[in-house]
């Protein structure tokens, strides 16, 4: 068994990655899920795999260099899949330093820990950094897409912190010969998405008959991918991606925000037995996000052609699955919105 360190595994995407690796590779990997359990980390996301013999949860903070060194000294870490981050653009606008500390300093702490532990046998290891399409900035021309060659142009504190971390990862690959690989993915959606982000926030508010806050005119475009397809892509890149390379991940699935909100309203009115048009009456246009990027669109040809990855779901199907998951899991949503999940799980782990 090889030890694989997945950071941020209690978060939205991380929990899907942990589940995939724990269940798909029971005899190959022992998964160490390193997570600080910030507001975004929720161990309820992993209830179905928490007792698997090849899974261990480690409560730890990547901002703490000493504890990262200690973890690598005590655990023979074969590879890292690094997802831990502050991930919400709006929070980065109100508290940029939190993003510098976790996304930049935290990533460098992990790289340093790997550098020390792997010295002399670097080639046997792999450091995979999971990043975002936001590092490329925004698109204006409808014909344009982000490719792996697009110049970095981060425009929010969040994307600037992710861009900085990408640069450090590549620099450590070049300077210290740590075998690195990176991917930059578009917007994810699916089960366990924290309801501060567009899709789960709208689902939550429709359920509770609350206003649906659409920033600006709702004309901004995002490129949506079902989270399980991102997890599958991460598996593909980790195993088949070439050392030093970057892979863009996306589903060629662009939507204006306002169109997604209308679609969600229609789907949920139907599922909740409300007359068509009820939920769209909740749409409220609010002040735009500062520096709001207009459009993201990923060219995912490289990962499709070179590594054979394809998304498995059409958007309408994925969105319906997502709505069904939220409707079937009201306790998850209530715990998250009340903050109860954090007390319960920190107590449970403190007593282990
Ligand atoms: P998330 O906010 O849901 O989860 C982040 C996780 O990291 C949480 O479990 C949190 O507790 C943990 N964490 C935060 N700070 C930490 C610290 N200092 N030490 C240890 N753990 C810490 O995020 P997400 O949406 O699942 O995104 C995961 C990664 O994927 C991020 O790196 C993000 O930039 C990237 N990404 C996200 C998307 C998206 O659409 N959500 C798209 C592309 C890339
Ligand atoms: O592109 C990948 C990125 O996607 C990830 O790197 C980020 O971690 C992730 O949070 C996401 O960033 P966005 O800013 O695109 O996601 P968010 O869900 O916050 O917003 C999606 C769009 O919806 C964006 O144009 C802003 C708009 N929006 C968002 C919220 C929360 C609204 O109109 N109203 C809202 O209440």
CATH C-level name of the domain at 2-186 and 227-250 and 292-313? Alpha Beta
Q: Spell out which ligands are present.
A: nicotinamide-adenine-dinucleotide, 2'deoxy-thymidine-5'-diphospho-alpha-D-glucose
Biggest β-sheet: strands ordered side by side in the sheet: 3-2-1-4-5-6-10
Total strands: 12
Major sheet, described briefly?
Answer: 7 strands, parallel
Mean pLDDT: 96
State the order of secondary-structure elements, H for helix, E for strand.
EHEEHEHHEHEEHEEHEEHEHHHH
Question: What count of helical segments does DSSP give?
Answer: 12
The CATH H-level homologous superfamily of the domain at 2-186 and 227-250 and 292-313: NAD(P)-binding Rossmann-like Domain
Distance between the termini: 24 Å
- Contiguous low-pLDDT stretches (5 residues minimum) are none
CATH domain topology of the domain at 2-186 and 227-250 and 292-313: Rossmann fold
Question: Any overview of this molecule?
Answer:
The structure is a single chain. By secondary structure, the chain is α/β, with parallel strands linked by helices. It has a domain at 2-186 and 227-250 and 292-313: 3-Layer(aba) Sandwich (Rossmann fold), CATH 3.40.50. 43% of the residues lie in helices and 17% in strands. It is built from twelve helices and twelve strands. The chain has helices spanning 12-24, 65-74, 89-94, 96-117, 157-176, 198-207, 227-240, 257-271, 301-307, 315-328, 330-338, 340-350, and strands at residues 2-7, 29-35, 55-59, 77-82, 126-132, 180-185, 187-189, 212-215, 221-226, 246-249, 254-256, 283-286. The strands form three sheets. A seven-stranded parallel β-sheet has the order 3-2-1-4-5-6-10, sandwiched between helices. Strands 7-9-11 form a three-stranded mixed β-sheet. Strand 1, helix 1 (12-24) and strand 2 form a beta-alpha-beta unit. The longest helix has 22 residues, at 96-117. It binds nicotinamide-adenine-dinucleotide (NAD) and 2'deoxy-thymidine-5'-diphospho-alpha-D-glucose. 2'deoxy-thymidine-5'-diphospho-alpha-D-glucose is lined by residues 87-89, 132-134, 186-187, 197-198, 201, 213-215, 220, 222, 257, 289, 296.
């Amino acid at each position: 068994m090889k030890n694989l360190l997945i950071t941020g595994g209690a978060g939205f995407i991380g929990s899907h990655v942990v589940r995939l690796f724990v269940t798909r590779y029971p005899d190959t990997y022992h998964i160490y899920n390193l997570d600080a359990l910030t507001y975004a980390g929720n161990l309820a996301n992993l209830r179905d795999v928490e007792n698997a013999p090849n899974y261990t949860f480690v409560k730890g903070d990547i901002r703490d260099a000493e504890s990262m060194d200690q973890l690598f000294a005590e655990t023979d870490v074969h590879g890292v899949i690094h997802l831990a981050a502050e991930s919400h653009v709006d929070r980065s606008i109100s508290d940029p330093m939190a993003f510098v500390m976790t996304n930049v300093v935290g990533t460098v702490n992990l790289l340093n820990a790997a550098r020390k532990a792997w010295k002399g046998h670097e080639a046997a290891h792999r450091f995979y950094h999971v990043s975002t399409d936001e590092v490329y900035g925004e698109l204006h021309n409808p014909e344009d897409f982000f490719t792996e060659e697009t110049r970095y142009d981060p425009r929010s504190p969040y994307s600037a912190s992710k861009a900085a971390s990408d640069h450090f990862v590549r620099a450590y690959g070049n300077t210290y010969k740590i075998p690195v690989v990176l991917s930059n993915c578009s917007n994810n959606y699916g089960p366990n998405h924290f309801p501060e982000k567009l899709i789960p926030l709208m689902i939550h508010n429709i359920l509770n008959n609350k206003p649906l806050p659409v920033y600006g005119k709702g004309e901004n475009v995002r490129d949506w991918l079902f989270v399980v397809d991102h997890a599958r892509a991460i598996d593909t890149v980790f195993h088949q991606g070439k050392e030093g390379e970057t892979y863009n991940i996306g589903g060629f699935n662009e939507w204006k925000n306002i169109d997604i909100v209308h679609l969600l309203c229609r789907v949920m009115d139907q599922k909740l037995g409300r007359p068509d048009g009820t939920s769209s009456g909740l749409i409220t246009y609010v002040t735009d996000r500062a520096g709001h990027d207009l459009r993201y669109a990923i060219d995912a040809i490289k990962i499709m052609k070179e590594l054979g990855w394809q998304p498995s779901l059409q958007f309408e199907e994925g969105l319906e699955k997502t709505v069904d998951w939220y409707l079937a899991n009201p306790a998850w949503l209530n715990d998250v919105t009340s903050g109860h999940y954090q007390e319960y799980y920190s107590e449970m782990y403190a007593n282990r």
